[in-house]
Write a structure and sequence with these properties.
Layout lengths: L2 H16 L3 H4 L5 E6 L7 H16 L4 E6 L7 H10 L4 E5 L22 H8 L2 H8 L6 E11 L1 E4 L14 E4 L3 H9 L3 E4 L5 H6 L5 E4 L1 H6 L8 E4 L4 E9 H4 L4 H35 L3 E4 L2 H10 L1 H11 L1 H14 L3
Parallel strand pairs: 1-2, 1-3, 6-7, 9-11
Antiparallel strand pairs: 3-10, 4-10, 5-8, 5-9
The protein binds (2R,3S,4S,5S)-2,3,4,5-tetrahydroxyhexanoic acid.
Length: 338
């Protein structure tokens, strides 16, 4: 056997031996990740953060630890976003809608009736358009890792079932802290009041507001059925969550550490979307059993709402830029077989 051949064989043997221990050779430092979120531990959000935390700890051989802090104990979305930007907190998951003040392209996801179903949402959010919108965060001190599902939003209130556009007249409706939501519900005739989610239950309980809008899962996990009578199925917008990281902190991580976080955010996303959809499928019956009165919105009324909101679309297109807007419309056309 030639010298060269013997060396090659020996190198191969060492590589084969080392392979199972590859993770030991990876560059992990002890890291504590404070991961904040707004819903409670028993929510779809809480369950997914737990899955994320376990994936990170496992993939880093226990070096990277996630301290999950729910129920807005670190503050509402906007406060956590600032903590991430400043480097005082490492990670969070929250609504894309509360990021619009920081990164205007996020308003794309506030477009009323943008997606017809979850399949369209997944395709656009996980595709090049979703990535482009997410990447815009980097200039603002945030790194986006993955979109999770909050879901299609529906209306609840204590005044009356909303079966037609006019039923919204004068209803004091809490909206997220986001101008598209504020303008949309004003256009629809409601008296829209922006409030952080963490103040919502008590605002409903004390009748500071009459109603709110959120996916079934949240109406259930946040026990809004205790303080809301009517649920009107409007599906007026698909609302994503986004997992974000402090860029200040992220830039100090090794490539291996960054990969662990990205992979875990994506695997937790897949878990979360399935969990959320399974829960949503059963939630209506549960909310009914809890005493809520549920009504569908007739297609003609849904169409009237869309028409009323046409000017919002124009404003969003101007905000996010004509190019991103038309790219999105083209992608949706393609998905719909156009
Ligand atoms: C809202 C949102 C919230 C989420 C959550 C706190 O109505 O839908 O449920 O942002 O992350 O504020």
């Amino acid at each position: 056997m030639s010298m060269l051949r013997r060396t090659l064989l020996a190198t191969a043997a060492v590589a084969a031996l080392a392979a199972p221990f590859a993770s030991l050779a990876q560059d992990f430092k002890p890291r504590l990740i404070r991961f904040g979120y707004g819903l409670n531990e028993q929510s779809n959000q809480g369950r997914a953060v737990k899955v994320f935390a376990e994936a990170v700890e496992k993939a880093s051989g226990g070096k990277m630890k996630v301290r999950a802090i729910g129920a807005a104990a670190l503050g509402p979305d906007t406060q956590m976003q600032q903590a991430l930007i400043g480097g005082a907190q490492e990670m969070m998951v929250g609504s894309t809608a509360t990021l619009v003040g920081i990164s205007k392209e996020m308003a794309l996801w506030d477009t009323p009736f943008l997606f017809n179903n979850a399949k369209e949402a997944d395709a656009v959010l996980d595709g090049p358009i979703g990535q482009k919108v997410m990447d815009k965060l980097q200039d603002k001190g945030l790194v986006g890792l993955a979109y999770w599902e909050n879901g299609f939003r529906n209306l609840t209130n204590t005044k009356r079932p909303v079966t037609k556009l006019e039923d919204l007249d004068g209803i004091k409706l809490r909206v997220m802290q986001n101008n598209v939501y504020l303008d949309s519900f004003k256009l629809l005739g409601a008296n829209a009041v922006p409030l952080p989610f963490s103040e919502l239950f008590s605002a409903l309980e004390t009748k500071t507001v009459d109603g709110q809008e959120n996916p079934y899962n949240t109406i259930l996990s946040s026990k809004f059925y205790e303080v809301q009578k009517y649920l009107s199925v409007t599906n007026h917008v698909y609302s994503p969550w986004i997992v974000t990281v402090s860029k200040k902190w992220w830039d100090g991580l090794s490539k291996d550490e960054q990969k662990v976080l990205l992979d875990a955010a994506r695997s937790a996303r897949d878990f979360e979307r399935k969990d959320t959809r399974d829960e949503a499928a059963k939630a209506l019956a549960e909310l009914k059993a809890k005493g809520m009165q549920i009504n569908e919105l007739p297609a003609t009324e849904s169409a009237r709402m869309r028409e009323k909101l046409a000017s919002v679309n124009t404003a969003i297109a101007a905000n996010v830029g004509a190019e991103l807007w038309s790219e999105t419309q083209a992608a949706l056309g393609k998905l719909r077989g156009g």
